[in-house]
């Protein structure tokens, strides 16, 4: 939910920012910020499917600063908006 910077991630691992990026590339094949974005999107998909929370609440609860940025990012990664994702699940039931 909180704003997490590269410095925060590196500090949590007791390494410098450069080393942090190298470790993430080596073990996760992506940057720390990309990993964080994917994690937040994954958590948001769980909430979309398992709750009736409004999209704005989901966006903020997983750490996106605004619903519009969340929707833009979600569409970029998933090919549909959070609303479309949620509706698609319920139309399959």
UniProtKB/TrEMBL annotation:
The lineage of its organism: Bacteria, Bacillati, Bacillota, Clostridia, Lachnospirales. One of its GO terms (molecular function) is DNA-binding transcription factor activity. Keywords: DNA-binding, Transcription, Transcription regulation. This is Helix-turn-helix transcriptional regulator. The keyword Transcription applies. Residues 1-88 form the HTH araC/xylS-type domain. SUPFAM superfamilies: Homeodomain-like. The keyword DNA-binding applies. It comes from the Bacteria. InterPro entries: Homeodomain-like_sf (IPR009057), HTH_AraC (IPR018060), HTH_AraC-typ_CS (IPR018062), Tscrpt_reg_AraC-type_HTH (IPR020449). Gene3D superfamilies: Homeodomain-like (1.10.10.60). It comes from Candidatus Blautia pullistercoris.
């Amino acid at each position: 939910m909180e704003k997490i910077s590269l410095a925060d991630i590196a500090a949590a691992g007791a390494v410098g920012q450069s080393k942090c990026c190298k470790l993430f590339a080596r073990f996760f094949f992506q940057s720390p910020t990309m990993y964080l974005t994917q994690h937040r999107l994954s958590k948001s998909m769980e909430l979309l499917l398992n709750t009736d929370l409004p999209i704005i609440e989901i966006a903020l609860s997983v750490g996106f600063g605004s619903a519009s940025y969340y929707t833009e990012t979600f569409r970029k990664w998933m090919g549909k908006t959070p609303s479309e994702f949620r509706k698609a699940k319920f139309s399959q039931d």
